[in-house]
Automatic annotation (TrEMBL), chains A, B:
Its main location: cytoplasm. CDD domains: DSRM_RNAse_III_family (cd10845), RIBOc (cd00593). Residues 155-224 form the DRBM domain. It comes from Sulfurimonas hongkongensis. Belongs to the ribonuclease III family. Its EC number is 3.1.26.3. It is an enzyme of class 3 (hydrolase). This is Ribonuclease 3. The keyword DNA damage does not apply. The gene is rnc. Keywords: Cytoplasm, Endonuclease, Hydrolase, Magnesium, Metal-binding, mRNA processing, Nuclease, RNA-binding, rRNA processing, rRNA-binding, tRNA processing.
Length: 229, 229
């Protein structure tokens, strides 16, 4: 099977000298080769932790370690990397077994996220930290319009909508299922539905807070579903 | 209070251009300054994860991701960094409050490990990855005579002995408290005592395996004790 890896290199803004390296980064373990992308994923994971950590260190000069960790955790995770992988159409280039292919492998967040980490690991190996830093930061800034602690929370609703649209072609629905307490101290209970199935419910001091917390839980459930497949 | 930071720089093999940077890396939050070492620790933590990850990636070319993760986890943790910090006499240079000083702060593994990460973060910021890589790898190779999956296990006994000697001036004692099963399938239960107090017990197919597992648990208990102080 041949893939137009040059198109991917074009999108990445990086041309590999060692073509075997990018092939390894794109090879899922199901593809039964003497190599797969798990070692490069191991490396890329650490590379991304440092790149994002340093980026936030400089961007938020007044934030303490706890805040930096929280913001990083919101970017450096399967959902975040899945998003970056999709922006590169990485799924098209992955080498996987027919069984995994038929199982929707090209569209699985875990698989896409791992391949993204592996590609970053491969660029790091060949071109060094500075090069891979500029590539990764460009991607992150393009795909996360606002990076801040305040925007984290609201990101869950956006993330969930992107996820359900990609996967089911629909947007999630939020319903207030209960409200309690006196007016000045009201609490809302909100449930989130995807295709009329309730995925999560959560309480909060405002509908917005409850929606976002419910969205967060739904995102985690959807992603966990992938991992266990 | 003045400290001979030049002596530390000598040991590190690195002279800081920005002296404020190393001072920040050595400042515990108890010392009530407008800065402390927690942001640099955040950065250094990621730097060390990458340095050690890449080191193992190249050293163990045939090992899969799971094995690499395990070996890294055995090096990149509080006990491991505490050991490296002590090899630099880092405790002598840390700025902390009188209260923390009287509380044995200079000798706490958590405090030492954090300061070590912060120093690595500071060198990275000023001198870049390559420089800090060579410093960290030299330190790790000097302090971990054998880095491999096989040696991990036996390291726990060594680590525990170093810990109890530094802290209590004694070596731990291991006693076989039970052995079960037929000769060809015997299982041993071993308990580890420090100052006649039992700290942990564990079973294994050989006395050695049981000892090492018990040592591991004791190390974790001793370190947890520090964190909660």
């Amino acid at each position: 099977m041949s893939r137009n890896i040059e198109a991917l290199e074009e999108t990445l803004g990086y041309r590999f000298k060692d073509k075997q390296l990018i092939i390894e980064a794109l090879t899922h373990k199901s593809y039964k080769q003497p190599y797969d992308n798990e070692r490069l994923e191991f490396l890329g994971d650490a590379v991304l932790d440092l790149i994002v950590g340093e980026y936030l260190f400089h961007k938020f000069k007044k934030s303490d370690e706890g805040k930096l960790s929280k913001i990083r955790a919101s970017l450096v995770n399967e959902t975040g990397f899945d998003k970056l992988a999709r922006s590169l159409n990485l799924g098209e280039y992955i080498f996987l077994s027919n069984a995994e292919e038929n199982n929707g492998g090209r569209d699985k967040p875990s698989l896409l996220s791992n391949a993204f980490e592996a590609v970053i690991g491969a660029i790091y190996l060949e071109a060094g930290l500075q090069k891979v830093q500029s590539i990764a930061i460009k991607l992150i800034e393009k795909n996360h319009k606002e990076i801040s602690l305040d925007s984290l929370f609201s990101d869950y609703k956006t993330t969930l909508q992107e996820l359900t649209q990609a996967r089911f072609g629909i947007t999630p629905e939020y319903k207030v299922v209960a409200s309690r307490g006196p007016d000045h101290q009201k609490e809302f209970e909100v449930a989130v539905f995807i295709e009329d199935k309730e995925y999560a419910r959560s309480c909060g001091k405002s509908k917005k807070i409850a929606q976002q917390e419910a969205a967060k839980q739904a995102v985690e459930m959807l992603n966990k579903g992938d991992a266990s497949e």
